[in-house]
């Protein structure tokens, strides 16, 4: 898949998405951790600890082929995407918490993503043909953090412009992700049926479990309904573009990107259905407690 789609399109897509994240961010978003420490800590624990463990269990249970198994764990290690903020807004979640979680999780992923992906490569004993060069990892996270920083500067210096750009950047990000997914599926056209058979069910299960865990676990720790919805979207809606970029550009294996592409097709539908149900449930509970 050595084409303009990967050499130009993928880095550009990732940069646009991360710039869009920066447009929503201020320094105060990082300070919000002190005002909602429980909600932030529980959501991050779900994202960083529980999700990789759940994903690894599914990979072992379904006995996935090595490259698809590595792809699933790479996806699990990827932070929440900016789309999570949109879903949280649509379904009355705490969007400010989403923004904080996405920002912190993106920074933490600089460490956790290579560790989890490296573990997956070692588990499947593919170190000889699948590697993560340190230089390439540094480039990836420069491509993540620099656009975020630029977006934050724009938000600080020209907040009106940042607000006007926000919608366009979100739409552009979704369109680019759709093009990337289509490109991967076309590139692997001969094997698409086999891939869907191998990874379709596990991707659907992982998405459903992620959304539910992201809501149920925070609620069990006393987090409010809107914050739990925000956590659910953050945990269940991944930055699939980042996973695809790492698979294709760093690991140099298109097949590893397939789980992220399939997950992208599933997560929008599942997040919409789950968000509709859970937001109604939260609203009903709030109405009942007010009467």
Automatic annotation (TrEMBL):
Membrane topology: Multi-pass membrane protein
Gene3D superfamilies tied to this protein: 1.20.1530.20
Keywords: Membrane, Transmembrane, Transmembrane helix
Subcellular location: Membrane
Domain of life: Bacteria
Pfam families (UniProt xref): SBF
Subcellular location, principal: membrane
Regions crossing the membrane: 6-27, 39-60, 66-87, 99-124, 130-150, 171-189, 195-217, 229-248, 260-278
Stated name of the protein: Bile acid:sodium symporter family protein
Organism name: Nocardioides baculatus
Taxonomic path: Bacteria, Bacillati, Actinomycetota, Actinomycetes, Propionibacteriales
